[in-house]
Amino acid sequence: MISLAGRDIMHAWGKFVFTGVGLGLLIGVTLSMAGIYRGMVDDGKVLLDNSGADLWVVQKDTLGPYAESSSIYEDTWRAVAGMRGVERVANVTYLTMQVRKGDRDVRAMVTGVTAGAPGTPGWPPYLVAGRQITRGHYEAVADIASGFSLGDRLRIRRNQYTVVGLTRRMVSSNGDPMVFIPLKDAQEAQFLKDNDAIHQQRRRTAANPAFNRPQVPGLLDAVIDSQSTNPYVNAILVQTASGHDDEEVAESIRRWQRLTVYTRSQMEEILLGKLIATSAKQIGMFLVILSIVSAAIVAFIIYTLTLGKIREIAVLKLIGTRNRTIAAMILQQAIALGAIGFVVGKITATLLMAPIFPKYVLLEPMDSVRGIIAVVVICVLSSIIAIRAALKVDPAEAIGG
320 is in which domain, residue-wise? Predict the structure, then answer.
């Protein structure tokens, strides 16, 4: 039985291997799609891990700071720091934007971090080169995925920043590399208007009769001053003290500070259940389509190979070969074709597609196990049509014509 399948494969091994390679490329795309989804999930978890936070304090009734816009007063951290069970707090801002280096733009998440030391919530947990930010202005730490190097000069809004440190796997939930700058600089980049807009707003404010009435002296100056300052941040990152339950601390902050607070599990649900939910459905649909296409290709190939040896199958039946043996021969050929395709697909996905794909591709061993099982099942099902055609062959065809 094995000899029959092997001899038939060796008889036309070139066509068989070439077909397996073509099928392998399709399987490689399928494995890569699964890896892209895994990478999206990992990006979301890495973002939360690298923040160093146990709780996220954001604007009330928002899903901030990653899924929605959030804005709270920057001095709120003092009240949060005084809550029972809170060990460390830090303000943070997030802004996804184009960071310019010379004539090149890089899509990045610009993160404003407060002054402190390594371990402060929001800071990159480790560096692969350089040092952390030590000055209050115009220094940056960038992820190596951005393509920036130590000493590079970056332009963020109106200001220039020098890259003093490099980190790895510090990315947003969309896979954009992160660039860390001092909090005050990030607040200016995110909230403040450009000079022309501020000038025009001051002219409009000064022309408003409500601010020039005698009964409100000083109101005009106060409004103008407020336009040149920024008292807001996107979130407060909280580390809870040892021995305290995160949910209990979060509930206390919600009750007394009138803000929305998310625990790690809740924030993970927001990232995975809301931000990437649509992308996950799209990838799932592509996987289904690719599986159907793969099954159709295997079925067509095996059926074509079977039709090409109808006379040989008739001879086998004429000399008394059982139908079970013929069916096993076709089934083995289908599985062999799938095995070649899977090996080629795995190599293609690991060595070619994953390294050059613009997003992070995470190929997990269990996905490969599921993949080989799916390939075998598809090959078995796809061989059914060819087996039925072979079993209907009349032995008389071996001596006819």
Answer: 2-44+277-398
